[in-house]
Amino acid sequence: MKEKLFKLLHDEQVITEEQYQQALQRSETFGESAEQVLGRMGILSEEQLLEFLGRKFRMPLADWNDYIPDQRALNLISEDVALKYVVFPLFIEQGKRQGKMTLAIANPSNVSVADDIAFMTGCTIKTCIASARAIREAIHLYYPGKVRSPEEAGAQAETGKRAPNQDFTRSGSGEINALLSNILQEVEGEAEEQIEGISGADREHPSIRFLLELLQKTAKYGVTEIHIDPYGHQEYRIRLRRHGSLHEHTRIPAQLGEGLATRLQKILQQADRNVLQKTESTGRHGRFSTILNGANSLDIAANFYPTPFGKKIYLRLQKDAELRTFQHLGMPEKSLKTLNRSLAKPQGILLLVSPPGEGKTTTFYALLRKLAQAGNHVLALEEVDERSVPDIPQIPYSPETSFQEWCSTISYYAPHVLGLGAVEKPSMKRLAFEFASSSLVIVTLTAKSLGDGVCSFISSLFDELDMCCSTEALSYLLDSMNGIVVQRLARTICPNCREQHALSESDHEWLQQFAGVKAEDGDAVSSAGKGCAECMETGYNGQIALFEVLKIDKVLKNLLLQHYPSCVSPVRNFYTEMSPETFKHQLLQLFRNRVTSLAEIRRMAL
Ligand SMILES: [Zn+2]
């Protein structure tokens, strides 16, 4: 163990060959511990050791010179927490969405510390290294609650400044020693792995342990995506998507990020040769499950993309409970009736569209499950293997399979209902058309509105079928269409930090213009979340789905024949006449019921 530390220091050229030999000899002769040897022989001071660790973990050293405590930072972390984690909040800056805290930590190999503090404070955390002794002294000196005489404070301040030059064997060496042994374990672990391949103890590997801790924490905060990507050469950035919006959570050393990507990919490969598939569109991807808190199982789809700085990891999280049932979609009454009529038809294409990331996949599976539970034979074909759904056979789309092969595979299953998820490939659209005469085909598509969805689907069918756009051909294609559903997601205000405020004049003007009628009395007031720990400082703590549903009947077909390919506003006007349940109406209702904020409505109305 000692020998390994000396060797590591030697390999990294922290100590010379001569010092290395001396240290080995001395430790053998006197039986002293590694840090005693280094300290007593005057080989390495505490400062030098910290510098070494800083390089090893790519973290800067805390600068205690002329340090002035930041009261706002101190308020965010209690003294107990600081002592428990051996951290000290140096200062805080105001970031775009949340505070950025610079945190001195004693043990950079314990990656969950920064993570825990980030969750407690709602800040993004930038870490730097300091000795445990310097941190304890700073805590003692700067935390309130203990009345100290000016002399005492002055004396301690002086000690603090002198600290880095002291012989590190005196105090705080325990932590540093533990830290070094952690590094050594990692180094040993790597060596072992090269010989034997992946051991069964994957969960104990530091990078995987880090991932599991991250998943554990994020799952309970309703995080749906984790992006772990290289940020320059030095760092990896971890961003979380929660209720539709992505924000930075923390940064980790590049070494850890890269190690995590490599290790996770290996595990997925090991688990099942077929789990990790390589596709053109998604890079490499696979899926795994993990049990959190012994109760909830978390299903995770993992994707790996190469970038110039290293591998990016993209994880999609799905808790068991998140498979919504049809009843829980919260669709307005008239829209629900229209949709049910479409679903009752034995054939035709039902388009399910939304802008990216606005929940169409959840709705897609809710519809398929409802149909399966009603006794239909349902088959789902997905471009990306996003989530596993009980009751429904799912086939992942692979680009190597030819159109003819897909046709025979699907015919073999002879489904009543065929679900085509994330149909961005033209050949998938052709499959939809192929089976529209024998099955109800539910197709998800990225589009913003009713008219946009129908037209872009039809126009890519024209391309794929190599047909020219005559009225007859258009009529023929439209005959295969059954209906269309557009979905949007609005974020709902966090009840924990909700505040009411009067609308500014310009907001009020905008609202009046948007509503198109004289504003109601309550419209002068708006609610919004100011941001708290519950909602990770976003002010929003949930999502609510809005729907527009349209049946494609003779009247609409004639309208489309008349206006194709510029259908967006004719279809919009047609829908507004047909149904009171427009997005605008639903948004205004959410606003007047104080469910969502004006800012959210303005974002969605864009
Ligand atoms: Zn809140």
From TrEMBL:
Q: Which GO terms describe its molecular function?
A: ATP binding; ATP hydrolysis activity
A GO-annotated cellular component? plasma membrane
Entry's Pfam families? MshEN (PF05157), T2SSE (PF00437)
InterPro entries tied to this protein: P-loop_NTPase (IPR027417), T2SS/T4SS_dom (IPR001482), T2SS_E_N_sf (IPR037257), T2SS_GspE_N (IPR007831)
Q: Which domain of life is it from?
A: Bacteria
Limits of the Type II secretion system protein GspE N-terminal domain: 57-146
Report the residue ranges that make up the Bacterial type II secretion system protein E domain in this protein.
203-602
Q: Which keywords are on file for this protein?
A: ATP-binding, Nucleotide-binding
Name the segments for region: Disordered. 150-171
The family this protein is said to belong to? Belongs to the GSP E family.
Protein name, UniProt field: Bacterial type II secretion system protein E domain-containing protein
Q: Which organism is it from?
A: candidate division KSB3 bacterium
**What is the phylogenetic placement of the source species in the record?**
Bacteria, candidate division KSB3
